[in-house]
Fold:
Amino acid sequence: MHSAVVPSETVPFLARRPVVLAAFLLPLALAIVLFTIETGPVFLLCLAAVLPAAAVTMFAARWIAPRRARSWASSLLAVAWGAGAAVLLAAAIGAWSSERAIYVDDQGIVREAVPTMWVLTPIVEEIGKGLGVLLVLLLARRIGLRGVLFGAMVGALVGVGFAAVEDASAIAADIAENDPGSGIATWIVRTLTFPTHAALTIWTGAALGLALDARRAWSRPLLALAGLLVAIGAHGAINYGNVAGATDQASFFTSLGTAFGWIVVSTVLAVTLRLVLTRRRV
Structure:
């Protein structure tokens, strides 16, 4: 990895670029407003309820990068993109693509040309998160922050922001449709599986960090695409678990087990990569 400048230099760097801040913060504000309008003030309470899990996951994600590369400006921009622009892109493009995937067959039965839950949703969400990872990495390169570990951190943090809003909206919707008790149960499950999105996008981030430093230009898109495909594939496998079981309960535990498994795999590989690369620098 390349050496990194002190994180404090990132503040004036971003302060001179209000357009950059607006591109990250305005979608965040819009997402919060839209979800608050949709489910009411309970969304804000649910968002506060998931913050402890978000804080723990964010701390773990920042540990991945070397100490001098843990820029708070880059970290907060990554979280803001995940919670704002990525969520809005997933909602808008997801709804548009889902509508076009639906058709009525000759027997009058509504079907999907392409499965929404475990094909379209993973593609849309991972690309939306990946765009933010790429933007943050390109901005950070201007001040010397780069490399596979920095990319992994940024990817995980984008996932943290995305999960915070997605989980809060799911809990709020459950409360509105059922009751507070059901919402609490959803909160428990979502808290336990909160690192899932971080464990997905960390692959996109690591691949992009590696690709941007690759010496051979032809290998850069291949590396970036490989990381994105891993994230999409794992996301699809987790979502497929929701329909894979013979019963709703079996499907729930299949999806839950797949999510936990992927969190463990990503964590072990991230920790190993961090320790190996950090030791080489000593």
In short: Confidence is low (pLDDT under 50) at residues 1-13. The CA atoms of residues 156 and 198 lie 4 Å apart. The chain has eleven helices and two strands. The first strand starts at residue 102 and ends at 104.
